[in-house]
Amino acid sequence: MVEGGPGEKLSPADSRAVMLAFLHALDADAGLPASADQPDAYSALVRAILSSVAVSASPAPRVSCTITVSPAVTNRYNTLHGGAVAAVAEAVGMACARIAAGDKEMFLGELSTAYLAAARCDSEVDVEAQVLMKGRSDVWLPQSSSDRHKGLHFNGPALNMES
Q1: What are the start-end ranges of the H helices in 26-158?
Q2: Where in the chain do CATH 3.10.129.10 domains reside?
Q3: What is the mean pLDDT of the chain?
């Protein structure tokens, strides 16, 4: 197995070996499911979190969806994991930016998230992104997430760049 040093670029196979060794050290090496080896495994994982997506192509395009916080995406405090928050924010923001910019190749240039409150397991959280400003090569989106009963969980701007 190859040890990865700081700043060293590993091949995908070596990266996987390092990750499996890390999981083994944590006694969490039950093995990865076959679906994790698929090229679109990350996208499928994020899509599984999202439900009831609504798209509005009004003058300012908007994408909203609902997340039901399941035990699969919670942390040890029984709240929505921060990584899941970022993944959902990226997916919803990218969908909204693609509506505004058309079918162009894009990447996430910046995502800033202010975590304001925890979303508990089994709660429903509404996530929304709306185009604030569109330039020739960038799209600015304010994003927010709120629980239907307790208020805002996170908010922050995202900048998507066209390549």
Answers
A1: 41-49, 82-101
A2: 49-162
A3: 76
Tokens, residue 142: 């304010």
Model confidence pTM above 0.90 = no
Burial of 58 (0-12, 13-18, 19+ CB in 10 A): exposed
Alpha carbon distances (Å) from 28 to 6, 24, 25, 35, 77: 24, 6, 8, 18, 19
CB 162 within 8 A of CB 106: yes
Residues 68-82, mean pLDDT to the nearest whole number: 89
Q: How many residues does the chain have?
A: 163
Structure tokens given for 42: 């990350």
Is residue 152 predicted with pLDDT exceeding 60?
A: no
Indicate whether 66 pLDDT > 60: yes
- Contact, 127 vs 98, CB < 8 A? no
Task: List b or e across 22-43, with b for residues whose CB sees 16 or more CB atoms inside 10 angstroms.
Answer: eeeeeeeeeeeeeeeeeeeeee
Q: What does the alpha-carbon distance between residue 81 and residue 153 come to, in Å, rounded to a whole number?
A: 12
**Contact at 8 Å (CB) between 100 and 61?**
yes
Superfamily of domain 49-162: Hotdog Thioesterase (3.10.129.10)
And the tokens for 125?
Answer: 């959280």
